[in-house]
Design a protein that fits this description.
The complex is a heterodimer of chains A (473) and B (93).
Chain A lengths: L4 H10 L2 H14 L5 E4 L3 H10 L10 E5 L26 H8 L3 E6 L19 E2 L2 E5 L5 H8 L5 E6 L5 H7 L2 E4 L19 E6 L2 H11 L28 E5 L9 H16 L3 E5 L4 H19 L17 H12 L2 H14 L4 H25 L2 E5 L15 H6 L5 H6 L3 E9 L2 E9 L4 H13 L13
Chain B lengths: L3 H10 L6 H18 L34 H5 L5 E2 L2 E2 L6
Antiparallel strand pairs in B: 1-2
The chains are: A alpha/beta (473), B mainly alpha (93).
Chain lengths: 473, 93
């Protein structure tokens, strides 16, 4: 079993933050799963500061990996894209300010799909991150580096971002725990925006309690993000409460065509386990689920086409040559953006263009309302929803790269959650042919406490999280 | 079905230069995805309001007080070409 936060804190007390951070850096050095885009040169300095100044805080001396689309002052932030190669942000994201204040050591930036666009971390300009359980397979995406680093024991905790499942997908594929918080629970200030009405920063770890501890640090109000909501956090407060009497809804539509038989069986076994622990389940129907995927991609791509307009080689990043500004920008974007990013910018521009706006964009926003209403109706009767996180275990590297639509279809069970903005956690629930499978526990708005409590109870009563990936060195 | 010419035009609108070979490939890929998007036509949304945003937040205000911003040097540090405190670009007009 990999060390959790409490083990690390004990090690720091008995040795030093410097020694603990050095041991993690050594693990990263030895590994070849390509989980990082860069390592912080001052990681040891940060740790020494914790030791010498006696810095206190809930994460004092704890090394953490940060997805490379979260701004870190003085440390390269590229979104795994050639267009931002060499960019060093002059400021920290809200979550980074909070982590530094809590004493965490930012050890490096983790690999991701370019600008968060993908389900496998294969669209990274730095090459794919390999799955620690089987290096011929993808780690999932787009926070693949953040999940793989955690599962391979290269860091105890990490941050990712989840626009349509990008924290939960790699958590499921790598056998880690990953939380997509309620929209508005975590400030997006300093997150490089891809689809701003859908995305949230979320924590990954090997233990549910560690994910909750990170939320206590990062999930605070910030007036620099106007979509950030004031709410009562307390993510760890009720973690130890049991699930006796918990009402679980199981949506039929999340077990439909394309969901692997083994995955379905493991998720049903997990629901059976919850029954043994005193919870009860009913089947619920969420009839608009089949339309969520198309609506999601239209909205995400439309927002992306607008958000990515700022990358033109003018103010930051690197530029291509052109005789006038228009040529320079168009050439820069042609040469420095990868194929998937261009695909989404083109589709988004098309969906927003005159004549197609109502057919695609407005229609998708209306379908979004229907999907949201499905959740609101379901939560009138149940406390949580449970379903598979991903339709299959991790697929082989290269398997889906030539067919964008088949890759989009893997997000079928995660995107409805982002459309509605509710919180959702993926927790390991077993193995299919040696590869981890994730159980998704979905909660009502700002009710992270209930899904964390449920996931924690499950973890305490099972041993999936104790198994080690082949890559753990 | 989206044509090669349409792809080139969208590329111009989006400031992404698309050469001929890429335009053909994108035309076929984007058509497949747009076909898939077409399934939304089945959904009756005649009485449904759009959801632009999930959180019911309206008019987020803060006090109108002056506050600091990033230093000019910090901003210019990431620009490829700088002259006299300005970012230099090829001619725009």
């Amino acid at each position: 079993m990999l060390d959790g936060l409490s083990d690390i804190k004990n090690r720091i007390v008995s040795s030093s933050a410097e020694e603990v951070v050095a041991s993690y850096l050594e693990r990263i050095e030895k590994s070849n799963i390509n989980a990082f885009t860069c390592i912080a040169e001052d990681a040891i300095e940060q740790a020494k500061k914790v030791d010498s100044l006696d810095i206190e805080g809930p994460l004092a001396g704890v090394p953490i990996a940060i997805k490379d689309n979260i701004s870190t002052k003085g440390l390269s932030t590229t979104c795994s894209s050639a267009i931002l190669e060499g960019y060093v942000p002059p400021y920290d994201a809200h979550v980074i300010e909070r982590l530094r204040k809590a004493g965490a050591v930012i050890i490096g930036k983790s690999n991701m799909d370019e600008f968060g666009m993908g389900t496998s971390t294969e669209t990274s300009t730095y090459g794919p991150t390999l799955n620690p359980w089987d290096t011929e397979r993808v780690a999932g995406g787009s926070s693949g580096g953040s999940a793989a680093a955690v599962a391979a024991g290269q860091v105890p905790v990490s941050l990712g971002s989840d626009t349509g499942g990008s924290v939960r997908c790699p958590a499921a594929f790598c056998g880690a725990v990953g939380l997509k918080p309620t929209y508005g629970a975590v400030s997006r200030y300093g997150l490089v925006s891809y689809a701003n009405s859908l995305e949230q920063i979320g924590p990954l770890a090997n233990r549910v309690e560690d994910v909750a501890a990170l939320m206590d640090v990062i999930g605070t109000y910030d007036n620099r993000d106007s979509t950030c909501v004031k709410h009562n956090a307390g993510y760890t407060d009720t973690l130890q409460d049991g699930v006796d009497g918990l009402k679980i809804g199981v949506p039929d539509e999340y077990f439909g065509e394309g969901i692997d038989d083994n995955v379905q069986k493991l998720v049903w076994d997990a629901i059976g386990k919850f029954e043994d622990m005193g919870a009860e389940y009913t089947k619920v129907s969420m009839p608009n689920t089949p339309y969520a995927l198309a609506a999601y991609y239209i909205i995400a791509m439309s927002e992306a086409s607008s958000n990515l307009a700022r990358f033109d080689g003018t103010r930051y990043g690197n530029r291509s040559e052109g005789e006038n500004w228009h040529m320079m920008a168009s050439k820069t974007r042609q040469e420095k953006f990868g194929a998937e990013v261009k695909r989404r910018i083109l589709l988004g521009t098309y969906a927003l263009s005159a004549g197609y706006h109502d057919k695609y964009y407005l229609k998708a926003l209306k379908v979004r309302t229907l999907v949201k209403q499905d959740f609101e109706r379901a939560f009138e009767d149940v406390d949580v929803l449970m379903a598979p996180t991903m339709p299959t275990p991790a697929f082989k590297i290269g398997e889906k790269m030539d067919d964008p639509l088949s890759l989009y279809l893997s997000d079928v069970n995660t995107v409805p959650i982002n459309l509605a903005g509710v919180p959702s956690i993926s927790v390991p629930c077993g193995f299919s042919e040696g590869l981890p499978v994730g159980l998704q526990v979905i909660g009502n708005y700002f009710d992270e406490a209930t899904i964390l409590k449920a996931a924690h109870s499950f973890e305490k009563n099972t041993d999936h999280h104790t198994k080690l990936a082949a890559e753990v060195v | 079905m989206i044509t090669k010419e349409q792809v080139e035009h969208i590329g111009w609108l989006a400031r992404v230069n698309i050469d001929e070979e890429d335009a053909s490939e994108f035309a076929s890929e984007l058509s497949t995805v747009l076909d898939y998007f077409g399934q939304l036509d089945e959904v009756d949304t005649s009485d449904v309001k759009p959801t632009y945003h999930v959180a019911d937040i309206m008019n987020v205000f803060r006090e109108d007080e002056p506050r600091g911003s990033l230093e000019q040097d910090a901003i210019l540090a990431n620009a490829e070409e700088v002259q006299d405190g300005y970012i230099k670009t090829p001619k725009i007009i």
